[in-house]
Amino acid sequence: MGTSNPFGGGNNRNPLVPDWVGGAGPAPGGSPPAGAPVSGAPGPGGPPGAPAPGNANPSNAPAGGNNSGGPGDGDAPAPNRFQSARTNFFKFAKAGGGAAGGVGGGRGGGTNRNLRRAVRSFIGKSSGGARRATQRMASERSATANLGRILSTAGTAGIQETVRRLGFAQLATLPVQDIYAALVDVICEPGGELDESFAREAYIKALTEISEAKADLERPSPETTVSFLASFITNAIQNRLLNAIGNKVVSIPLDVASVQNVEQQINDYIRGNVNDAMAEAGEDFPVERIVSTIDDIYERSVVLLEGSDHESSDNGFEAEDHSEIA
């Protein structure tokens, strides 16, 4: 018999950006893959193009954006800040992800209106705006930058040579997909915290998706690199969204097909905005600017998601009965 309670999603009492996100010194380095030697891994003087796990933006703050303020700064969390987002998400999920309220053309065209409202409210109110929502994803941004470094090196040297440069020569004999799977502890910060688990899950899902697409990961092309990174970022944002306001996504729809439709619509909607953000930022990932580039894409994606619905505000949804999603 277990005594643990199910996770109920985001808490109104939690700070918008916890004190331990950013400004707490360098992030911990990644652990070597299982069975890999600890010695011989490149340090600060390692080979050109080798990733430095956890060595992302020292402040873990996005490079761009106009919403200033760091952890502990700005307004306190608004009371009931998850209420509107959860209400709209509940409506979307209960309908099985039907395209009610969808409109053609433009960003979000054809996307369920309740989903757009839920995402907009989650970013704008629940998370305190795009800037703070992006800051909160420090683990995901760091891991995405680490993956970008590996893909950049592998694009020219091949993944086998890349892992040799990293000091993990024994991985070079594995199948290509297995090499990337074994690098999860190098790309993502190890640990049992929820934030680290978000990054790891997003990476594994992205690796599965890019592998199913039969992309060449032995020597990834620029197009494959863009697709892999976009999938990682999409899954990272989706994990945050579902964890905060969509923890009942599996139990609300009527059947398995509806659950799958709900999850696919969420992923498609986020991926469309991530693709737009990457196009705006430029699909070039120079190793020397990988951290600032990835931070910029994350923030652009969240900004687009927050502002993608130009309908009226969510006023009128706040007074509804929320007993179904409590």
The end-to-end distance, rounded to whole angstroms, is: 25 Å
Mean pLDDT: 75
- Weakly predicted, low-confidence segments: 1-31, 35-61, 63-74, 100-106, 311-326
Name the shape in a single word. Answer: globular
Number of helices: 11
Rg, alpha carbons: 20 Å
Please outline the major beta sheet: none
The arrangement of helices and strands along the chain is HHHHHHHHHHH
**Tally of DSSP β-strands:** 0
SS-based class: mainly alpha
Q: Beta-strand level of the residues, as a percent range? A: under 5%
Helical coverage, percent range: 40-55%
Task: Describe this structure as you would to a colleague.
This protein has 11 helices and no strands. It has a domain of 227 residues. With 326 residues, it is mostly helical. Helix 2 crosses helix 11 and helix 4 packs parallel to helix 8. The N terminus and C terminus are likely disordered. The two termini are 25 Å apart. The longest helix is centred in the last third of the chain and has 26 residues.
What keyword list fits this structure?
326 residues, 11 helices, 48% helix, disordered C terminus, mainly alpha, disordered N terminus, 0% strand
The gist of it:
The chain is mainly α. 48% of the residues lie in helices and 0% in strands. The longest helix has 26 residues.
